[in-house]
């Protein structure tokens, strides 16, 4: 039997997509990489995922697990022709309010979980700006962050257990409801593993109580330096707000033109700060935010009067990447992180890099944790443009690492940053990571040639690249 024949036997013809257009659509994610898809499958249970993995393994075909495909590092774009396992049909949710937890299928859309639990007084804290589309499986695989992860922590702080299907097709539970399960913490190895170690088929996540009070403050500044100094100054006074987000003027104007969030377009940079918690503490913290902003020459300051105004401000922040579509057909979004104290100097260098390469760059970033998102708007159909963008972004990565930062704050390494890993890790580090991967997946079945560059270890290099004979 052919691979596709086997898959149809497991899932039926409707959940096996092999038409050229279908395969093309699943060949990329939110980033710029594209790869070849052999076939797309849509399992609905862990048992089906297990049968799919066993069939693909029998036919020697690599597997790329996939959520909503909103990733920005090429994590869900096959590096070699692969079976794409889309988990979007696995949407079961079992809420346990007594324990403040929920078992969720990997295909549950992030925001849907919070919508479901909001009236009971809870939400799922990690809130990527893509939260109306991205899946919890993708969030767990990428250890995703979001504006409100400054105070609450990224996805790993909210996952108690993961169920995975291994490269042998075994269904294994890692972690559990207990806060400190015995044995090695393999759950935290899988969180953030970018689809390299297994396919996540369920996760036990924490539900966070909704804050009793929230204040959202929009501050405009003449310069990026003043906005950054305010953000760092607030944290230095011992307050960790729920969110501290900065946008430069180009991004503010694009967003304002796109959704009309009420951002001041004459400001050189804006800061969106949110404090949340007990009403008395929130009032005191909001006053401190205003005070620090004043000390740093704030030019305009507004506190959202009600939930409608607050929602509008956040719509503006969360629409930032989409707003760039007005400027150019494509964008490349970088994701790096530097110590907060290095933000101003690093931003200056990043603007210089953009100018030297002649690219249109806009910036919006999670200032509280030093997580930068330089974004270049460009037209990929113009020959040579993508090469220029890659060259500029490689320099940005180097500058951030020199400043004591890291290659990714939240989007992961995937394909896009794989070959930059030696900037941060020496041979021994890479070999250790490759050996850990081999312990889970000795044949490199899952997401081959991602995250670890060629030469980290022989797993990817030694594999015969499938030729298409299975079709
Ligand atoms: C407009 C926009 C805003 C964004 N904002 C943020 C942000 O604020 N913070 C942030 O962190 N990210 C952000 N992202 C990036 C992206 O949304 C996140 O990385 C998200 O978690 C990806 O989820 P997904 O379901 O789309 O996963 P996909 O893109 O489908 O996959 C991402 C990676 O996870 C793996 N994977 C997916 N599902 C599974 C599974 N069940 N088992 C094993 N591996 C799996 C894939 O192989 C791939 O490597 C943004 C993206 C966009 C387009």
What does the model show?
The protein is of the alpha+beta class and about 475 residues long. The protein folds into 5 domains: about 5-85, 2-Layer Sandwich (Uridine Diphospho-n-acetylenolpyruvylglucosamine Reductase, domain 2); about 95-210, Uridine Diphospho-n-acetylenolpyruvylglucosamine Reductase, domain 3, CATH 3.30.465; about 215-320, 2-Layer Sandwich (Alpha-Beta Plaits), CATH 3.30.70.3450; about 325-420, Alpha-Beta Plaits, CATH 3.30.70.2740; about 425-460, no CATH class. The protein is built from 16 helices and 20 strands. α1 (about 5-10) runs antiparallel to α3 and α8 (about 225-235) crosses α10. Flavin-adenine dinucleotide binds near residues 64 and 69. Flavin-adenine dinucleotide binds near residues 87, 130 and 410.
Topology summary:
Blueprint: H1 3-11, E1 16-17, H2 20-25, E2 37-41, H3 46-58, E3 63-66, E4 82-86, E5 93-96, E6 101-104, H4 110-118, E7 122-123, H5 136-142, H6 149-152, E8 159-165, E9 171-175, H7 186-190, E10 199-206, E11 208-209, E12 213-221, H8 224-236, E13 243-248, H9 249-259, E14 269-277, H10 279-295, E15 298-303, H11 307-318, H12 320-323, E16 330-333, E17 336-337, H13 343-357, E18 360-366, E19 371-372, E20 374-378, H14 385-402, H15 427-440, H16 458-462
Parallel strand pairs: 2-4, 3-4
Antiparallel strand pairs: 1-2, 5-6, 6-10, 7-11, 8-9, 8-10, 12-14, 12-15, 13-14, 13-18, 16-20, 17-19, 18-20
Helix pairs in contact: 1-3, 8-10, 13-14
């Amino acid at each position: 039997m052919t691979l596709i024949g086997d898959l149809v036997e497991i899932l039926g013809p409707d959940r096996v997509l092999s038409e050229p257009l279908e395969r093309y659509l699943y060949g990329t994610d939110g980033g710029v990489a594209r790869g070849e898809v052999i076939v797309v499958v849509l399992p609905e249970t862990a048992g089906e995922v297990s049968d799919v993995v066993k069939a693909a393994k029998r036919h020697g075909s690599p597997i790329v697990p996939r959520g909503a495909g909103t990733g920005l590092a090429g994590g869900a774009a096959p590096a070699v022709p692969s079976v794409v396992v889309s988990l979007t049909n696995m949407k079961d949710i079992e809420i346990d309010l007594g324990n403040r937890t929920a078992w969720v299928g990997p295909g549950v859309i992030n925001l849907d979980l919070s919508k479901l639990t909001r009236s009971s007084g809870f939400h799922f804290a990690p809130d990527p700006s893509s939260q109306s589309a991205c899946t919890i499986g993708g969030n767990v695989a990428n250890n995703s962050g979001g504006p409100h992860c400054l105070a609450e922590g990224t996805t790993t702080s909210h996952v108690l257990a993961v169920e995975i299907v291994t490269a042998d097709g075994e269904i294994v539970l890692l972690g559990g409801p207990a806060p400190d399960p015995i044995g090695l913490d393999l759950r935290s190895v899988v969180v953030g593993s970018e689809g390299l170690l297994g396919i996540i088929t369920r996760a036990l996540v924490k539900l966070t109580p909704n804050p009793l009070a929230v204040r959202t403050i929009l501050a405009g500044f003449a310069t990026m330096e003043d906005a950054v100094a305010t953000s760092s100054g607030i944290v230095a006074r011992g307050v960790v707000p729920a969110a501290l987000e900065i946008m430069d003027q180009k991004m503010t104007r694009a967003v304002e033109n796109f959704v009309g969030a009420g951002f001041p377009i004459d400001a050189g940079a804006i800061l969106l700060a949110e404090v949340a918690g007990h009403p008395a503490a929130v009032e005191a913290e909001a006053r401190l935010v205003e005070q620090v902003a004043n000390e740093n020459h704030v030019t305009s300051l507004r506190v959202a009067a009600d939930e409608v105004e607050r929602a509008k401000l956040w719509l503006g922040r969360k629409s930032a990447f989409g707003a760039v579509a007005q400027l150019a057909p494509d964008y490349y979004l970088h994701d790096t992180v530097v110590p907060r104290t290095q933000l101003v100097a690093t931003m200056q260098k990043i603007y210089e890099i953009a100018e030297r390469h002649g690219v249109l760059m806009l910036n919006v970033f999670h200032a509280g944790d030093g997580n930068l998102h330089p974004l270049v708007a460009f037209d990929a159909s113009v020959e040579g443009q993508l090469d220029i963008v890659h060259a500029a972004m490689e320099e940005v990565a180097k500058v951030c690492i020199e400043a004591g930062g890291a290659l990714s704050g939240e989007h992961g390494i995937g394909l896009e940053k794989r070959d930059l890993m030696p900037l941060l890790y020496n041979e021994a580090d890479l070999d250790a990571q490759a050996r850990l991967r081999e312990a889970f997946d000795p044949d490199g079945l899952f997401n081959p040639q991602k995250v670890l560059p060629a030469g980290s270890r022989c797993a990817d290099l030694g594999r015969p690249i499938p030729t298409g004979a299975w079709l």
